[in-house]
Design brief:
The complex is a heterodimer of chains A (265) and B (342). Chain A has 265 residues and is mainly alpha-helical. Chain A has one domain (5-49, 59-261). Chain A is 75% helix and 0% strand. The longest helix of chain A has 30 residues, at 66-95. Chain A is elongated and about 60 Å long. Chain B folds into two domains: 7-227, Rossmann fold (3-Layer(aba) Sandwich), CATH 3.40.50; 238-306, ACT domain (Alpha-Beta Plaits), CATH 3.30.70.260. Chain B contains eleven helices and 13 strands. In chain B, 48% of the residues are buried. Classes of the chains: A mainly alpha (265), B alpha/beta (342). Chain A binds chain B through residues 10, 13-14, 17-18, 20-21, 24-25, 28-29, 96-98, 100-101, 103-107, 263-265, and chain B through 2, 25-27, 61-65, 83, 86-87, 89-91, 93, 95-97, 99, 101-102, 106, 110-111, 113-116, 142, 158, 162.
């Protein structure tokens, strides 16, 4: 191949068409749109009330309201959660025969997966935006830093979201049953979300859980987003988060495309 | 556009399989499949559920990897050049692979774009296909409003979007009502007239008879017979007489009386009232009555009909075809009377 595969015109068309198809599919399923948007609202409401007392504990940063602490974290956990729908969507395409059609066409195998990922990134970003607007308008959230840091808060979880989507596409191709992928998704995301620095300071967790939370990649991303939102960026957390996302993306891209090429049923 | 198929590369054969087999995984196995489909020919794969038709088609369409043998499709090697094979084929599976959240037009346009057509060409192709598949009125409606027959037609339209030279149709009319089935046949006949090579699987002898110039019969993953539909008919007998005895004890006597008349072995389970007698033509009916009368065999039912897939199977394998229910239908209880499909 004379040009980089990513720049080949056929690749651009395939990715554009498939991404457009996935997004239209999401938009035309009103219940899916509703629940995708309702989920972050419910999470914000519940967590901001249930864990409010955390802000009185001695481990909590002084002078910070719980919503200012929580919202950047929920932006990250929502993206992680929304990644699970990648595996359900690809499993549905497998089950309904769409993947049969794609596999019998002279197109690149990986464009089907990349398009899946990109459309889910877009959906995750829309969820984040809804949550941010809601936090600002209803819950009294405010940014403590510069405008650039505020934008950073919104974007810092993107690499991890992209990487997690690849992981869940891999799981979806391997499991290839939509119902099973949902359970598999919860199994992965719940420990990621709760054994992390997302909702409470790590120091307030039991000892063994602190160990888990400190190596949990989501903690890095949450710390990076929170640092930006509170106006004191945490460069260490940012780089660690980026490194973890890069490694996870590389492994998952290889795994997902290999699994897709090996589909044999 | 897709490069044209070069028939010379495969010695005139659009599909050429030698010893093709698949023996593992969650699919029904097939063994030792030799298949030669000339460019422009229409070949029917006939067999009951579970005979391996779908496995064979999915292998030839690059979706399943063979575990034995080799094949060339459109001149390209199935094992080493699956990407090249995909440039020549269109596949319509047993279940319509259409996107139900897109409209009919969007489905075709997306497919056309991915096959390398410009936006303008894709739009024109969609318009053409919607017209020739009688979907123009429904073109901009979401697929949730489509009937089963319309979905199948759209599915076929998607398979033909890139003008493939070889089309695989896996039971294209199973589950369709008679009118939709007839419409599908007309579409397939149009394809054939355009010179497309078609490999079509079906459970219906009538369908294979109408559409295919040559029929390959599969049973338990093996080719059990092959030839033009007429030749198969001759093997089976032109007609079948179903006989219901008044007294099951007369079975032996009835068999003896009709042995000379039958054009193929008579099927009868001892103790049953039912006999199935292949005969050369419907004019043999009076002879059946006369012979039974002379032997003193009384009967309460007599029907003559065209041979069905069951009859073909009976003649070729000595046993009836499995019932057309689930994919893993158990062997039929030999004491049960065979199912009659007229």
């Amino acid at each position: 191949m004379s040009t980089l595969p990513l720049l080949h015109p056929s690749v651009r068309v395939e990715v554009a068409e498939l991404t457009g198809r996935n997004l239209r599919k999401i938009m035309r399923e009103p219940t899916l749109v509703f629940f995708s948007l309702a989920m972050p609202v419910i999470m914000l409401t519940l967590f901001s009330q249930v864990f409010r007392s955390v802000s009185q504990s001695s481990d909590f940063p002084a002078g910070v309201s719980y919503i200012d602490y929580l919202l950047p974290a929920v932006l990250c956990t929502t993206l992680a959660q929304s990644a699970t729908t990648s595996s359900t969507a690809i499993a549905t395409d497998l089950e309904e025969g769409m993947v049969d059609r794609f596999r019998s066409m002279p197109i690149h195998a990986w464009t089907v997966l990349l398009a899946r990922n990109l459309s889910d990134v877009v959906r995750g970003m829309l969820q984040s935006l809804v949550m941010l607007v809601l936090g600002l308008a209803v819950f009294g959230f405010r940014f403590h830093g510069t405008l650039l840091e505020a934008v950073g808060t919104l974007l810092v979880a993107l690499p991890l979201s992209f990487a997690l989507n690849w992981l869940f596409i891999w799981i979806g191709v391997l499991v290839h049953k939509p119902e099973t992928t949902q359970i598999a998704g919860m199994l992965v995301t719940f420990p990621l979300m709760f054994a992390s620095s997302a909702y409470v300071p790590i120091a307030s967790l039991p000892g063994w859980l602190q160990v888990v939370a400190k190596v949990n990649p989501l903690s890095y991303t949450v710390d990076a987003a929170r640092g930006l939102a509170l106006g004191h960026p945490d460069a260490g957390a940012f780089w660690k988060s980026l490194l973890v996302a890069t490694v996870l993306a590389c492994v998952s891209v290889a795994g997902a495309t290999t699994a897709y090429r090996r589909i044999d049923r | 556009m897709l490069p044209p198929h070069d028939p010379a590369a495969a010695g005139g054969a659009a599909i050429l399989a030698q010893g093709l087999g698949r023996s593992y995984g969650p699919v029904l196995g097939v063994r030792d499949i030799d298949l030669h489909v000339d460019t422009g020919a229409v070949v029917g794969l006939l067999g009951p559920n579970g005979s391996g038709k779908t496995t064979l088609i999915r292998m030839l369409a690059t979706l399943l990897r063979p575990s034995a043998g080799q094949a060339r499709v459109g001149g390209a090697d199935l094992r080493t050049q699956p990407g090249e094979v995909r440039r020549h084929i269109g596949l319509t599976g047993q279940y319509a692979a259409v996107d139900q959240f897109l409209t009919g037009r969007e489905n075709i346009r997306m497919t056309a774009r991915m096959l390398g057509m410009s936006r303008a060409d894709a739009g024109r192709r969609a318009e053409d296909l919607l017209g020739s598949f009688d979907l123009r009125d429904a073109a901009d409606r979401p697929l949730s409003t489509y009937s089963g027959g319309m979905r199948r037609r759209l599915d076929l339209a998607l398979s033909l979007t890139g003008r493939p030279s070889i089309v695989f149709l896996d039971e294209p009319t199973t589950g369709l009502d008679p009118r939709s089935r007839f419409a599908m046949w007309t579409v397939i006949e149009g394809l054939v007239a355009d010179g497309t090579t078609v490999l079509l699987s079906t459970q219906y002898l009538e369908e294979a008879d109408r559409l295919a110039e040559r029929v390959v019969i599969l049973d338990h993953g093996l080719v059990v017979a092959e030839g033009p539909p007429d030749a198969l008919r001759a093997q089976v007998g032109a007609h079948v007489v179903d006989l219901t005895l008044t007294d099951p004890a007369d079975g032996r006597a009835a068999l003896d009386a009709l042995a000379g008349l039958a054009s193929a072995p008579v099927e009868h389970s001892p103790g049953s009232r039912e006999l199935r007698v292949p005969v050369a033509g419907s004019e043999a009916l009076p002879d059946v009555v006369r012979l039974l009368d002379a032997a003193g065999v009384r009967f309460r039912g007599l029907a003559v009909h065209e041979p069905s897939l069951d009859d073909v199977f009976l003649a070729l394998t000595g046993r009836p075809a499995p019932p057309p229910s689930g994919m893993t239908a158990p062997e039929k209880d030999p004491t049960m009377p065979p199912m009659v499909t007229t």
